[in-house]
Write a structure and sequence with these properties.
The complex is a heterodimer. Chain A is of the alpha+beta class. Chain A has helices at about 5-15, 20-30, 35-45, 80-85, 110-125, and strands spanning about 50-55, 65-70, 90-95, 105-110, 130, 135-140. Chain A has two domains: about 5-45, no CATH class; about 65-130, Alpha-Beta Plaits (2-Layer Sandwich). Chain A contains five helices and six strands; from the N terminus they run αααββαββαββ. Chain A is elongated, with a radius of gyration of 19 Å. The termini of chain A are close together. By secondary structure, chain B is α+β, with helices and mostly antiparallel strands. Chain B has two domains: about 5-45; about 60-145, Alpha-Beta Plaits. Helices cover about 35% and strands about 30% of the residues of chain B. Chain B is built from five helices and five strands, in the order αααββαββαβ. Chain B has a four-stranded antiparallel sheet with strand order 3-4-2-5, covered by helices on one side. In chain B, helix 2 (about 25-30) packs across helix 3 (about 35-45). Classes of the chains: A alpha+beta, B alpha+beta. At the A-B interface, helix 1, helix 2, helix 3, strand 1 and helix 4 of A face helix 2, helix 3, strand 1, helix 4 and strand 3 of B. Strand 3 of chain A pairs antiparallel with strand 5 of chain B, so a sheet runs across the interface.
Chain lengths: ~150, ~160
């Protein structure tokens, strides 16, 4: 990651235009060629510095549902349980955390009813109690992390 | 609410925007509609908040943000909205939510994600929140992510494209 990559990451956390040639528009702002910008984004995705590039959808606004859930996983079963939980396509993120509740994951579904089904299925397949913590209120979602 | 074309656009872009010089044209070609229509729909979804934004999501760790703390707080329910609004306005907080407790094991109902490149930095951030909450803070903890086990975009109905 060089200075130009950092510039691209910082710029694109702010937004990407909707127009016929958006890469050209951004490239002009960053004083790059369109081809170089595309190549660099591609590379940043490939090496994993960027997790995603594109529209970020709001699950609830799409009529879907989202929750954060946690489980207490015995250490010797950790990888096995992670595999079971990650296998659900509805599980978008999953993190190991340093707490007795040591695995935290986000479940996103397009139908609200499906959410409890997924939670139930995870409980059955893992044999663990799932601590379901759907948001009651959202105060802020955002932030740019300077590269 | 979203219509069929919105849904098709979402399905096609939820893993990412095409890396072609005319990405909206590429989407339009796939769906057999005009590029104007695709851009209009995406503009509309942005205005409605269905699209939060179009852009990049960096891997925090790879940018050097190694200290990503999920700070959790026990706030009396009648004050949680007021406190959550304040905490959410801090410039180092990326997400701030009110979530349910699971007594007796889990007392915390206010969640705020903080990010820093150093341990000292994250401790300072926690200190700032602690001071902001003052006497409304009935207990706190911080959980650090020690490993990303999975990170993808949201999927509509488990469909992958």
């Amino acid at each position: 990651m060089d200075v130009i990559d950092k510039k691209i990451i910082n710029y694109l956390q702010g937004g990407f235009p909707i127009c016929e040639s958006p890469y050209q528009v951004v490239a002009n702002q960053l004083e790059l060629t369109e081809a170089e910008l595309i190549k660099r984004i591609e590379n940043l995705l490939e090496v994993g510095i960027l997790s995603r590039f594109g529209p970020l959808y709001h699950a609830e606004q799409m009529g879907g549902a989202l929750t954060l859930a946690a489980v207490k996983v015995p250490e010797q079963q950790f990888d096995h349980i992670a595999e079971i939980i990650n296998a659900f396509p509805e599980v978008a993120h999953n993190y190991e955390r340093n707490h007795e509740l040591n695995m935290w994951f986000v479940v996103a579904t397009d139908l609200p009813g499906r959410l409890t089904e997924v939670i139930d299925e995870i409980q059955q397949k893992t044999g663990l109690k799932v601590y379901n913590m759907p948001k009651i209120n959202e105060y802020f979602v955002g932030l740019k992390l300077e590269a | 609410m979203i219509d069929t074309l919105d849904y098709q656009i979402i399905s096609l872009t939820q893993t990412g925007l095409p890396l072609t010089p005319q990405p909206y044209q590429t989407i339009a070609d796939e769906l057999g509609v005009s590029v104007e229509r695709v851009m209009q729909k995406m503009q509309q979804m942005t205005e409605q908040g269905i699209i939060r934004r179009i852009g990049v999501v960096p891997n925090h760790y790879r940018l050097g943000y190694t200290h990503n703390g999920m700070t959790v707080w026990n706030i009396a329910d009648e004050f949680v909205d007021e406190m959550g609004t304040k905490v959410g306005q801090l410039d180092f907080v990326s997400h701030c939510y009110h979530r349910p407790r699971h007594e007796p094991e889990w007392h915390y109902n206010l969640f705020a994600m903080v990010h820093s490149k150093t341990e000292q930095g994250v401790n300072q951030q926690i200190q700032i929140i602690t001071e902001l909450l003052g006497e409304y803070n009935l207990g706190q903890d911080v959980l650090y992510s020690t490993r990303i086990l999975k990170k993808t975009g949201l999927r509509v109905g488990g469909k992958r494209v």
